[in-house]
Every structure is written in C-alpha cells, then in structure tokens.
Amino acid sequence: MKxxxxxxxxxxxxxxxxxxxxxxxxxxxxxxxxxxxIGFYQLAAEQRFWFLIPPVLLLIINFxxxxxxxxxxxxxxxxxxxxxxxxxxxxxSMLGQMSYLKATLELATNEEFSGHLENVQQGxxxxxxxxNTRFTNLGFVINYHxxxxxxxxxxxxxxxxIDGAQKIMEIGDHVPLVIGHYRFYTSHNKGxxxxxxxxxxxxxxxxxxxxxxxxxxxxxxxxxxxxQIPGGQQKIWxxxxxxxxxxxxxxxxxxxxxxxxxxxxxQNDQRFELLPGEELELDSGVxxxxxxxxxxxxxxxxxxxxxxxxxxxxxxxxxxxxxxxxKFRDS
Length: 331
Fold this sequence. Notes:
Helix content: 25-40%
Largest sheet: 7 strands, antiparallel
Number of domains: 2
Radius of gyration: 30 Å
Oligomer: single chain
Strand content: 35-45%
C-alpha cells in the first residue's frame, strides 16, 4: 500500500478552511454582526462604514467557505440563492447608510426652493444633487376633523424645469415630489408667516421678506419670535395675536389665515401693535407689515438602494417559498 504524505502547511490550511466554514464560526459572526449593528448607531456617520465592514466580510467568507469545503446547499439551489439574497440585503443596507440623506426645509407661500436644506443628516458618500433644483410653494390645504384631528395635506407646487417651463403638481404627506432619488414630502410642521417690507435709512431700495412663526397649532400659545432686521444688528420681538376662531372644536375645518389679527412688536423697552398695511418707524429705518401668509415644512429623503432592496427581498422570499415547496413535495 502506498502512503501519501501530507505536508504540514496543507494540514493547517485544511484546518483553517474547516474552521472558517464551520457552523460555530457562523454563530460567532452573527453575534459579532449584531453587536456591530448596535454600535453602528452610536457612532458618527464617517465612522459607521468601517465599523460594519469586518463582520459582513467575514460572514461572506464563512458562507463561501461552507459552499466549497462542506459543499452545503449545492444540491438545494433555492436555499443557496436565498442566502445569497441575504448577503445582498446586508451589502445594500450598508451602501444605503453610506449614501443616504435626510433633511428638512421650510418655504413660505410663493417662496422658491433654492437648494438650501436644514437639519441635514447624510452618509459620508452622499453627493448632494439639488443645487439646480427649483420649485415654488404655491400654498396648501389641510383638513381637520372635529376635535382638531389632522387629516390629509394637499400642497400645490410649481416645479421649474431646465428649460424654464413650470409644471404645477400636488404633493402631500404620502405623495412626494420625486427628483432623481430625492423625495420631498409635506410634514406636520406648518404655520403663519408675517410678511414685512423693510427700508433702511441708508438703503436705496426696500427689502421684502417673511419670518416663520412656530408651528401651528402645535404651538398655539407660542406664536412669537425674535428676529434680526436685514442689514443690521437690530433685533425685534414679534407676536401674532389671533382674534378669529381658527381652531373650532365642534366641527370639521381647514387650516386658514385669520382675518382678524394684529402683530405685537417689542423693540428695546417699547411696545407697538401693527395691523396689515401699517408702518413702524425705527431708528435705522421703516418697517411695514404687509400682511399674513403661511409656511410649509418639508421632509427630504434620499436612498437609491430602496428599489434594489425591494427586488432583493422579493428574490429571497421567492426562493425561500420554492425551498419549502420542494421540501414538502418530497416529504
């Protein structure tokens, strides 16, 4: 009988491959992945990616080693494809976290979006693509049921194309404006926006703009704001005093601008009241209250992986269904 000698390095390599393909190693890696996911949300965005790479790569190596060394699932193609789909789901989720964006913005009625976002959260690989996007808030309608229970929101906007043409459309809480992979949804944040005209003593032209008071009706009794006059350091405190019943409790209604209202202005130790169209002379210029408008808050969301995640989930579920179908048929 001829004896075949095994080189020590080959033996060690075989042991390493067997250990890499073992179920015990899979269990250890799953615990490692779970701990990494928990730590993932405790880290800054720029550190997250590198925190998840090791367990994901090790799990992929473990799965491939199990296919080669133990030859698991080679006779069960649906189950093997199901596991490949799970790997794809993890990979896509990681890529989505590295390239996502979540943000908010506020636009007064007839104000145009110019690319500026607020409260931005984004992955380290995200490349901002809204610098050339333009749309205008044309106003909104919000229905409330009896007891001030908010219903649906309809927000008309005018989207400006590359050629300068405008397209009118309606969006809402569940019907977004879609630009590429960016989605703009209306939010529960909305409120009143007093419109002012300011003419400084040294200015040749007046400046018109609005301030956004706290969201209404969630801050019904806090409709006040301190703001800075354009072109100077002077600050004034403004409060909206509503004299209409804009929140009836005994019937359905719509969000509306109060017809009877006034602004209370405090500047230093002085107090003033303004009705629409009235002016206030200050040391550095003249402030004119033109009237009351409204503002709408938007949620902005970006995630290019969603359609791929959906497709991968469908593939995984189909192959899992096929696996059990074949198993029960053969039993």
